[in-house]
Amino acid sequence: MKKMEQLYEGKAKKVFKTDDENLYIVDYKDDATAFNGLKKGQIAGKGVVNNKMSNFLMQIMEKNGIPTHFVEEISDRETVVKRVEIVPLEVIIRNIAAGSFSKRFGVEEGKKLNCTTLEYCLKNDLGDPMINDYQIIAIGAATKEDLDTIADLTFKVNDVLKAYFESINIELVDFKIEFGKTPDGQIILADEISPDTCRLWDATTHEKLDKDRFRRDMGNVEEAYAEVFKRLGL
Ligand code: UDP
After folding, report:
1. CA of 70 to the centre of ligand 1 (A)
2. How far is the CA of 11 from the centre of ligand 1 (A)?
């Protein structure tokens, strides 16, 4: 597999074409941003943790019948993934109130929610606003059929991920995932699953083991990522 020209550079990853038109290479950086790019920094070693952790979790998803873009890890920071067109939605699951949910609805951070909650944000240049099912279909961000598939898969991802994290004494508070569409029209899990995109709390002490340590200048950011990595046995 040959790494060819860079297709895209995002906040945390670069994406490259390869000599196979159906495969891309993702390269994870240590760069971190928060609050829509207003806060910028670096988390040493984050690229390696996120690459390996995301690949590990994507493979667990596959074992549980959830199709993903994962193909092969080729270095500490690089992974071959299937070419997809990203559905322009941030799909968020919440098990426990935190972050923007707590702020928007005035619900104390840490409150266990009465039901698992699904939320969407539209990925655009207007600050990724929250959007509902009708609005998504109305503007054509996804079809009703694709959105149904996305919702079903997302609840499944939550069930598998939550149980897995519970087994290593971590509470899965919330997370954001993204889906892509393959050239033949299949909806698959894409992007990443990492402490950048999940809120992970130690189940005993409720200590934060995720990007909130960077967002909120709490210190020990690298240590928190390393702790999750260690508990996953990576
Ligand atoms: N999240 C993310 N990327 C974003 C926004 C949110 O990965 O651009 C994740 C975040 O890490 C958390 C979940 O989605 O696990 C819910 O985030 P929330 O809406 O509370 O936003 P935040 O407080 O992070 O701004």
Report:
1. 22
2. 14
Ligand 1 pocket, Cβ-based, cut-off 6 angstroms: 90, 92, 98-101, 174-176, 197-199, 211
pLDDT for position 46: 98
* Span from the CA of 215 to the centroid of ligand 1 (angstroms): 11
The pLDDT assigned to 2 comes to 95
pLDDT > 70 fraction of the chain, expressed in percent and rounded: 100
Answer yes or no: is pLDDT of 147 > 90: yes
Which distant-in-sequence residues (6+ apart) come within 8 Å of 133 by Cβ?
120, 147
Global confidence as pTM = 0.97
CA 181 from centroid of its chain's CA atoms:
16
pLDDT digits (tens, 9 = 90+) for 193-234: 999 999 999 999 999 999 999 999 999 999 999 999 999 999
pLDDT band at 1 (very low <50, low <70, confident <90, very high): confident
**Cα 223–Cα 207–Cα 104 angle in degrees, nearest 5:** 115
Which residues lie closer than 8 Å to 91 by C-beta, 6 or more apart?
118, 119, 120, 150, 154, 176, 177, 178, 179
